């Protein structure tokens, strides 16, 4: 199945991509210049911000829950579940990096393997 | 290197100290994580004060791909092959810690303009050895050993990649990782059949950035490991605990008969000393403790974060950087149990002690250092690791890194930033880049080991 991917910070250009393929591969095949490193979802280099839509990125291990809640997606392993709109590249990383001492994570904001679930999560 | 009788390097540390001064330096510069879609590259920097291009980049060798994150590097041969006339210190092995690609760079044919000789693809390394994230490189006779921080998908503890002298993958070097949880740096002392390794974290933990909470969840290292070098197995681990959080650079004395060595515990901001006592037991102690410093905007005092340490060739001085505080320190360790502070200079850092040096705004703090063989010139760069830079010094994206030189008094102790040397990586042709590790063609204080 094809999904329509819109890149907001590239003049809302759109691409039709295969829903089974990682977004990084699909976008690169369309000539989009994207940063990447490990290509297995562990190094965060390829992170982009999801503005609209849903993805499956269960294979990623780079993002903590705060980054996930801020909409970050690891493009090298994420596959689109719906049509999606992204901001890409380092320009989208405004909320990705934070000083760990001045802005610590709450227990539920840690990475999934060590986070405490929120009791009253809706 | 000039001698016709011998192989690479020098017969002894004392001989190495009498070598000619370095005329050029090789330094890594990265675009990974900066938003500039260009390959990382190896810079050749003119360090000859007589030259008209002194203190500037004279050539740049781009890697074939984007996003490697070049980090540390090492030579194909060092003084451990001094007796072998067939050997030559010619190739720098320059790994990409994110891509796991190993770039073999020919620095011998034209030392002022190195060229790419070969690439060992990260995919081949992962397929053949199930290892990724290359870090420290040492040559051991004909073999080249590289510490790899993760398995093929970035989980700890990783292991050691073994290359032969033709840069072909032999396989895994170690026979066992024992109970080791993480990998990072290593150094060895062949006369004592001992290797010591330290611990950072799994690539999947440190690459995305630093979360302090993960230290408490034991996702970062706090142990030091002693190996039987010949058997290639770990034989003893030392739990350093709160004194040794995130032990990084490992340095044995250059004197091949010595058993003394040191490691900098980055987050605890301590220097740990180890040695073998008269009963043949390996011991450790904390010899330096850098106090955390208050900061107006921080809820807790700022730790120094000792990102690197090294020893002068005569084993008299220990140097280290507090990357977050912004100082480089020199300690007299003539008595390795009692380190005495003899010098300190400031550049960048979070404490605002020296925001500008030699007319350039220093973004980041003193990070990688490299010392000349005679111990008098210390070159320092400011970037640590792209994602960590982005957390602590976000302005580095627009300002880039810089390289400075510190003149060191080897007689009485003391350090001074040289007013005439600065390489501003904010002004690179493709935009601001970040500089990291440095090596000198004729050897330096972290490249050579004596058998
Ligand atoms: S390239 Fe490393 S997480 Fe995607």
Structural class by helix and strand composition of chain A: mainly beta
Overall strand count of chain B: 30
CATH topology of chain A: Ubiquitin-like (UB roll)
Radius of gyration of chain A: 15 Å
The hetero compounds bound to this protein are: FE2/S2 (inorganic) cluster
Number of domains of chain B: 1
Q: Give the quaternary arrangement of the chains.
A: heterodimer
Q: Mind explaining what this structure looks like?
A:
The complex is a heterodimer of chains A (122) and B (451). Chain A has helices at residues 23-29, 65-69, and strands spanning 2-7, 13-18, 47-52, 55-56, 72-74, 79-80, 84-87. With 122 residues, chain A is mainly beta. With 451 residues, chain B is mainly beta. In chain B, strand 5 and strand 6 (102-106) form a beta hairpin. Classes of the chains: A mainly beta (122), B mainly beta (451). Chain A binds chain B through residues 33, 35-38, 40, 42-45, 61-64, 89-91, 93, 96-102, 104-105, 107, 110-111, 114, and chain B through 32-35, 37, 66-69, 98-100, 132, 150, 152-154, 203-204, 207-214, 217, 219, 297-300, 302, 387, 390-392, 394, 397. The complex binds FE2/S2 (inorganic) cluster (FES).
Blueprint of the fold:
The complex is a heterodimer of chains A (122) and B (451).
Chain A: E1 2-7, E2 13-18, H1 23-29, E3 47-52, E4 55-56, H2 65-69, E5 72-74, E6 79-80, E7 84-87
Parallel strand pairs in A: 1-7
Antiparallel strand pairs in A: 1-2, 3-5, 3-7, 4-6
Chain B: H1 13-17, E1 24-30, E2 41-46, E3 57-62, E4 74-75, E5 91-95, E6 102-106, E7 115-120, H2 122-129, E8 131-140, E9 143-151, E10 159-163, E11 169-172, E12 186-189, E13 194-197, H3 203-206, H4 213-216, E14 223-228, E15 233-239, E16 247-252, E17 261-265, E18 270-276, E19 282-289, E20 306-311, E21 317-322, E22 327-332, E23 340-346, E24 356-357, E25 360-361, E26 369-371, E27 377-381, H5 386-392, H6 396-399, E28 402-408, E29 415-424, E30 434-439
Antiparallel strand pairs in B: 1-2, 1-30, 2-3, 4-5, 5-6, 6-7, 8-9, 9-10, 10-11, 12-13, 13-14, 14-15, 16-17, 17-18, 18-19, 20-21, 21-22, 22-23, 24-25, 26-27, 27-28, 28-29
The structure holds FE2/S2 (inorganic) cluster (FES).
């Amino acid at each position: 199945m094809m999904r329509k991917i819109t890149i907001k910070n590239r003049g809302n250009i759109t691409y039709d991509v295969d829903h089974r393929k990682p977004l990084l591969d699909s976008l690169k095949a369309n000539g989009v210049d994207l940063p990447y490193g490990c290509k297995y979802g562990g190094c965060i280099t390829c992170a982009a911000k999801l503005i609209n839509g849903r993805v499956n990125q269960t294979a990623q291990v780079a993002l903590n829950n705060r980054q996930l809640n801020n909409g970050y997606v690891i493009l090298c392993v994420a596959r689109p579940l719906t049509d999606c709109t992204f901001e890409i590249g380092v320009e989208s990383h405004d909320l990705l990096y934070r000083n760990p001492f001045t802005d610590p994570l709450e227990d539920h904001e840690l990475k999934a393997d060590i986070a405490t679930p929120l009791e009253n999560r809706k | 290197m000039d001698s016709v009788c011998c192989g690479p390097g020098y017969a002894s540390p004392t001989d190495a100290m009498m070598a000619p001064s370095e005329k050029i330096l090789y330094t890594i510069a990265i675009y990974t994580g900066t938003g500039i879609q260009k390959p990382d590259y190896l810079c050749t920097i003119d360090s000859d004060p007589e030259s008209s291009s002194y203190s500037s980049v004279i050539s740049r060798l781009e890697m074939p791909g984007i996003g490697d994150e070049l980090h540390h590097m090492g030579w194909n041969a060092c003084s451990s092959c001094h007796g072998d006339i067939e050997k030559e210190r010619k190739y720098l092995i320059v790994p990409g810690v994110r891509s796991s690609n190993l770039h073999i760079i020919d620095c011998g044919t034209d030392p002022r303009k190195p060229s790419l000789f070969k690439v060992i693809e990260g995919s081949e390394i992962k397929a053949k050895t199930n290892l990724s994230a290359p870090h420290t490189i040492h040559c051991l006779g004909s073999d080249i050993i590289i510490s790899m921080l993760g398995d093929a998908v970035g989980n700890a503890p990783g292991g050691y990649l073994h290359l032969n002298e033709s840069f072909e993958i032999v396989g895994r070097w170690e026979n066992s990782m024992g109970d080791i949880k993480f990998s990072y740096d290593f150094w060895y002392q062949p006369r004592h059949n001992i290797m010591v390794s330290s611990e950072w974290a799994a690539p999947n933990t440190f690459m995305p950035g630093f979360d302090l909470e993960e230290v408490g969840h034991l996702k970062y290292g706090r142990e030091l490991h002693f190996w039987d070098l010949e058997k290639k197995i770990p034989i003893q681990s030392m739990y350093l605990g709160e004194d040794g959080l995130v032990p990084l650079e490992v340095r044995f004395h250059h004197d091949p008969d010595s058993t003394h060595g040191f490691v900098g515990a980055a987050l605890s901001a301590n220097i740990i000393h180890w040695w073998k006592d008269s009963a043949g037991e390996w011991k450790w102690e904390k010899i330096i403790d850098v106090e955390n410093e208050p900061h107006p905007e921080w809820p807790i005092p700022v730790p120094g974060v000792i990102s690197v340490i090294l020893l002068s060739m005569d084993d008299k001085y220990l140097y280290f950087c507090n990357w977050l505080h912004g100082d480089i320190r020199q300690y007299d360790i003539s008595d390795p149990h009692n380190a005495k502070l003899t010098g300190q200079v400031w550049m960048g850092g979070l404490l605002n002690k020296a925001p500008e040096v030699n007319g350039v705004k220093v973004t980041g703090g003193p990070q990688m250092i490299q010392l000349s063989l005679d111990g008098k010139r210390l070159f320092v760069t400011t970037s640590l690791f792209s994602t960590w830079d982005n957390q602590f010094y976000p302005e580095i994206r627009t300002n880039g890194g810089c390289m400075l030189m510190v003149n060191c008094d080897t007689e009485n102790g003391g350090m001074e930033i040289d007013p005439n040397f600065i390489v501003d990586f904010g002004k690179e042709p493709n935009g601001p880049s970040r500089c990291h590790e440095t090596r000198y063609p004729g050897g330096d204080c972290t490249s050579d080991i004596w058998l």
